[in-house]
Structure formats: C-alpha cells, structure tokens
Amino acid sequence: MKVRASLRSLKARPGAQVVRRRGVTYVINRKDPRYKARQG
C-alpha cells in the first residue's frame, strides 16, 4: 500500500503514531490531536 505524502509529513511530528486497523492506515497524535489523518 502506498503511503500518502501527507501521512509521511504527519509522522514526523512529535508524539505521532502510525497505526493500521483493518487495512486502514491512521496517524494519531495524543500530544497534539489536530494532527490526525487516515488513508484507505
């Protein structure tokens, strides 16, 4: 699965986690909840 460029930039933020659930890729950030994204 190709990871979108927007997810890559969010991944670099402090506190960010990349999680895969049921084939959907999420970026979650507990430290700064504004930085959320999903793909798939």
How many distinct beta strands?
Answer: 3
Helix content: 10-25%
Name the poorly predicted regions: none
**Average predicted confidence as pLDDT:** 91
Could you say which structural class the secondary elements and strand pairing correspond to?
Answer: alpha+beta
Radius of gyration: 9 Å
Biggest sheet strand order reads: 1-2-3
The percent range for strand residues is 35-45%
Biggest pleated-sheet summary: 3 strands, antiparallel
* Integer count of domains: 1
Task: Describe the structure concisely for a colleague.
The chain is α+β, with helices and mostly antiparallel strands and 40 residues long. The protein has one helix at residues 5-11; strands spanning 16-21, 24-29, 37-39. The protein has one domain (2-39).
What does it look like?
This protein has 40 residues and is an alpha+beta fold. It has one domain (2-39). 18% of the residues lie in helices and 38% in strands. It is built from one helix and three strands; from the N terminus they run αβββ. Strands 1-2-3 form a three-stranded antiparallel beta sheet, with helices on one face. A hairpin with a 2-residue loop joins strand 1 (16-21) and strand 2. The radius of gyration is 9 Å and the shape is globular. The mean pLDDT is 91. Keywords: Ribonucleoprotein, Ribosomal protein. One of its GO terms (biological process) is translation. Belongs to the bacterial ribosomal protein bL36 family. One of its GO terms (cellular component) is ribonucleoprotein complex. This is Large ribosomal subunit protein bL36.
